[in-house]
Amino acid sequence: MELTLEELTKTIMEMRTQGYLPKALKLADQGLLVAVERKNYPYMLDLYYQKILIYHSLGDTSTMVSLMHEYGAICQKHGSSKNFMHYYLVMSLIYDLVGIREKTVEMTKKSIVYAQELQDLVMLVRCHNNLCYLEVEKGCLKEALQAGLQARAYNEQLSNILPDLATLQDIRINNNLADVYILEGDFNTGQTLLDHTLTSNIIHNHKREKVAALFGYGFLYEKQHRLEEAIGYYKQAIALAQSYGDKQLIKKVMRLLLDVLYQLNWRDEIFDVQRNYIELTEKMNVDHLLQQVMNLEFKRQKEKLEKRAYYDPLTGVFNRYFLDYHLQQWLNRAKTIQFYVGMIVLDIDYFKKFNDRHGHLFGDMALQLVADGLKTFLCEEDVRIIRYGGDEFIVCLKHAQKDYIKTLVQNIHGYLLSLTVKEAQQSYPLKVSMGVCVNNQKNYHYKDLFKQADHCLYQAKENGRANYVIEELL
């Protein structure tokens, strides 16, 4: 039986939770092919996110960064609040792996803002637990304890919905809180939490979490000055991390192991571990990885600037600048493949009366409703949506079949008329007039298309508004 994309995404998350990472990765690759073919951007983004988290669990930072280039590009164009929440979480993981603490905290807190807005328990648990770990790294134990206990409180709620995931998250929370208690000198509580991890019936499927617990035991014994016992646990943690190739974690534990060896003055072992540490560092090519992350950050900032330049800040659709400088390129591509082009010019009927009667904030809500409605309805089409100015929008469509465009225009208008602006427990139906021009596969000049579509819009107004007029370019 073939799984739907929704079922597939859920199955991948369950397999990741159970520790079956290679199988989950294979399914994610298969699902991504289907989502790309169908231009199903929400599931495309979900599957990219699943792949990135799998590679994180496998310790493959380089592939994570590479995938984030693709994920970020799709997120900018088609992402929802949920996708941006995931984006910032993954960026926090990447910054942590390359040791840029300030950016790690910044990205984590941005993700928390989205998680609180969406009331996403899974993300609230994960983000607050990550924050606990980050506060430990900074030496802020009070803040770390607060974040860890907050994560635990959210996880108790999560256990009623997703018990298997909550069990895994409980292990991660305990590992981080154990570090807090150990640093505070409460060794009994710290050991109890680590015991809980290593005796869990799922820990054998989660090597990264087991490494963290073994590392925690080493840290516990080091703080108790039981240095030889600490060495034993650090070595176990390194061996397990080596079994699945988590180089970042191996390097972290090796540094701690070296500190203990220096305290004991075990010269022979110091030499061996130092040599392995240097070889690992050379293989990892940290500078190259850091450069990858910096390139990703540069690209993200560049995209933000471009978005400000090309996008209308109120509605999130393209602006007049895009129309003047980039729409013709899009039309030229339609000409190359000999697709028909439909240009729609639309505005909100009696928009000035809306503003005068209800205020400009109400008018802004109406504009956002139109823009969001167009983006939602046309999410799977090859389309450009532009705010021309005021309450006027331009929609450009291209398709191999002229009749498809005409039918789509009719459906767009019907959909927009079904929308209502809500304020103070009252609903005001949206009235929209549209003028449409469909080209003849010869003329692809946007000014000619716009001129005829704009003329059709005036005809629609003269015909009583709340309707549309469509003509073919002669």
Main features:
474 residues, alpha+beta, Serine Threonine Protein Phosphatase 5, Tetratricopeptide repeat, Alpha-Beta Plaits, two-stranded antiparallel ribbon, 21 helices, 9% strand, elongated
Question: How does this structure look, described?
Answer:
This protein is α+β, with helices and mostly antiparallel strands and 474 residues long. Among the domains are: 206-310, Serine Threonine Protein Phosphatase 5, Tetratricopeptide repeat; 311-472, Reverse transcriptase/Diguanylate cyclase domain (Alpha-Beta Plaits). Helices cover 72% and strands 9% of the residues. It has helices at residues 5-18, 21-38, 41-57, 61-78, 81-97, 101-118, 121-138, 141-158, 163-183, 187-198, 207-223, 227-244, 247-264, 267-284, 286-310, 320-325, 327-336, 351-358, 360-377, 402-417, 446-462, and strands at 340-348, 383-389, 392-399, 420-423, 426-429, 432-438, 468-472. It starts with a helix and ends with a strand.
Indicate the CATH class of the domain at 311-472. Alpha Beta
The residue-averaged pLDDT reads 88
In oligomeric terms, what are we looking at?
A: single chain
Specify the CATH homologous superfamily of the domain at 311-472.
Answer: Reverse transcriptase/Diguanylate cyclase domain
Number of helices: 21
Strand order of the largest sheet: 2-3-1-6-7
- Gross morphology: elongated
Helix content: over 70%
Low-confidence stretches: none
Keywords: TPR repeat
TPR repeats: 211-244
GO molecular function, one term: diguanylate cyclase activity
Protein name: Membrane protein
